[in-house]
Amino acid sequence: MLNSTQKLIPTLIGLSVAIVALAAFLFSYLDHPFKLLSIAIVLLSVFIFYIALRLKKFNTYSNLSTESSSSSDEFATAFEYASIGMGLVSLEGRFIKVNKSLCDLLGYSSEEFTKLTFQEITHPDDLERDLGYVSKLVNDAIETYQIEKRYFTKKGDIIWINLSGSKVKNPDGSFKHFIAQIENITPRKDAFQKIEEQSQRIQNIIDGTNAGTWEWNVQTGETIFNQKWAELIGYTLEELSPISINTWMNFTHPDDLFISEQKLTECFEKQSEYYTCECRMQHKDGHWIWVLDRGKVMTWTEDGKPLMMFGTHTDITNLKEAQHELSKSKAFLDTVLNSVDVGIVVCDHTGRLTLFNQAATDMHGIPFNPLESKNWTSYYDLLKTDGITPLQLDEIPLFMALKDGQISNSELIIQHASGNKIFVNCTGNQILDQNNNLLGAVIAMTDITNLKLATKNAEDIAVKFKGIFDSTFQFIGFLSPEGTLLEANQTAVNFAGLHADDLIGKKFWDCYWWTISKETQETLKANIESAAKGEFIQYEVEVLGGMGPTTILFNLKPLFDASGEVIAIIPEGRPIQEIVDSRKALLQKNEELERFASVASHDLKEPLRMISSFLSLLEQNYKGKFDDKADTYIHFSVDAAKRMTNLINDLLNYAKIGSEDAPIELIKTNELINEILPLFNTDLEIQNRKIEIEKLPDIVGKTTPIKTLFQNLIGNAVKYQKPGSNTLIKVSGKENISNWEFCVEDNGIGIAPQHYEEIFQMFHRLHTKEEFAGTGMGLATCNKIVKQHGGEIWVKSEEGVGSKFFFTIKKQYLN
Ligand code: ADP
């Protein structure tokens, strides 16, 4: 029946078209009454066409139903074996029919499914969304829908599915059931989630590294920075927008842009995979920060040009500053290492040499070689202190330090490339890290060649010195500043008739020699204290010798260090008993002589005065009464008697010096000289010469002898003048630490150097009595006076120019 209806439809449509065509013909060619007929025919044809259409619609439904029934087997097969899960679901949601794939997917059998609703196996979080679609589908708001949602499997696992839902209606248009197509998308979802997690992790890492990121389309210049990128230079992204590659260029140091460009080119030309550049960027505050810019071209255009490039910015300012500080301190360390004259050698924990400073290299005279320990001995010529035997590896201080942890004051000899032997003292240590892990060892070598030579010399000298020290005629010792006897020479020990052990280490004043009396010991003690303060002491003292009391001339000489501190005292003594005895005898003789001279000159004075006065009377009364010869003889006799008188006076004066009982007193020198100057007035006026007296220091001494002293010197200065010259005599003086020093200067005839000493002896004259009158006693008297005042007298002179007579008066004369 359906087939006949199907065939009828085109017939009916064709009929209605034919009728319309007929009606159109009638309408145009026939008269009016037929026109109405034609309209009726058209209406008929429209009716037939309607019938045809209704038939067609009916036929469609019929067809469907027919096709359905004819292909139901195919559908059932396709449904059952479809690779995706399929299910027919009732309006309430119950599974009416499910295919095998769906059973496999969720783990239920098809029977079990028929007892389930989709609501029961849908994840609660997805259910509402799903039901929303279902309701729209049922209400014809949508024909079909698709969602991703979660199902629970029978085991309770959650799986992700992609659900396509549609509905099937009954032929009458009423709802029949849903068709659900279910695709397992769990693997895709998992993968997607993994990607999500991964990108989140990457994002976290980027955030964690505090790095700014950039994405750059090299072809268009379009650039994306993250917020951190902007923050690195103190901005927000908003402040920097609009952002392009120029944003980066504007903030980057021009010098670094150039380098960056070079590195980018390398990257674009695929010479390097990564772009890495350290650049300075200007911060919003104005200062420059250092940025490590790293990136990589990730995609390329088809014609091989770089397209997308991605990268990061990291603030490495601190690192750069630390690097700068590090390089500064390394430079400092290198300079220090290479400027010290101590050789430094370092090895790592394996024994490989890692450092030789300049001094160490110089000590060997060969270039540094980073050798392993087993090769040290063959390369570096290291010898034992005998200078011959080569050092074994385990005797090398660096190796010992590495193995044992520490080595100190180990001595060895380096055979320098030049052949010279260098004596070194080594001190070394292990190098450990914070956790006490061995990093290596270091050794410091001090060149002690000179010290060794000096020590050897000192030893040689000491041996020689000891020989001299012990064999000298004097007693010599060595005292600490506190007076302990540290050393005494053999002479001194022998003199005491003891052994050195009986004396060394004792206080000097408690040693045998000085025990002669308490007073001698006390004096010595006091003198040692003075010497310890830097004073040179000398005195004669009677001490005990092996043979009994002996007088010695004894010195205490302080020994100073570079800073002027007294570090020791050297006592020195020499027996002078014989000298003392002969001096005593001499003094006695002198006294006797002086007494004799005094008595003789005193006793001679009277007859001489008589001879002189009678000769003068003879000359006065009888001159011209005899012949000329008699006059001459009388004159010579008078003259000789005068000179004899002078000589006896001078001798008497000389003899008296020291024997007078004059007190030691303060002498106002200028006043004293003023008293004696009138004595020379006549001579000075006659000779038209001047005498200039400077301000002189006052002194302490015996007035009369000091007066004689000045009188003689000024008298000589007046006497020994060049005739006819305008000369000047000057008396000057000054105060020294231990004495007063005076000078009587003239511009007279002067004295030849060879006579400087002898003129101070008695009766020594350089001129005849005809040239200059005198007795030759003046300077001898001066010498005696000065000596009695603990001083010295000397002359500096030039013949024809003048003389300077100097003398000193000792201050200690006070004591
Ligand atoms: P005299 O009685 O001869 O002056 P002195 O002992 O005073 O004896 O001097 C010794 C000698 O030293 C003198 O004879 C003289 O030759 C020399 N003499 C002393 N003073 C001077 C002087 N101021 N200038 C040159 N010669 C001098």
Automatic annotation (TrEMBL):
Catalytic activity: ATP + protein L-histidine = ADP + protein N-phospho-L-histidine
One matching Pfam family: PAS_4
Every Histidine kinase domain range: 599-813
InterPro entries listed in its UniProt record: HATPase_C_sf, HATPase_dom, His_kinase_dom, HisK_dim/P_dom, HisK_dim/P_sf, PAC, PAS, PAS-assoc_C
Keywords: Kinase, Membrane, Phosphoprotein, Transferase, Transmembrane, Transmembrane helix
Positions of the PAC domain: 145-197, 275-328, 408-460
Domain PAS: start-end pairs: 71-141, 198-271, 329-405, 461-535
Residue ranges crossing the lipid bilayer per the database entry: 12-30, 36-53
Enzyme Commission numbers on file: 2.7.13.3
Domain of life assignment: Bacteria
Name by which UniProt lists this protein: histidine kinase
Lineage: Bacteria, Pseudomonadati, Bacteroidota, Cytophagia, Cytophagales
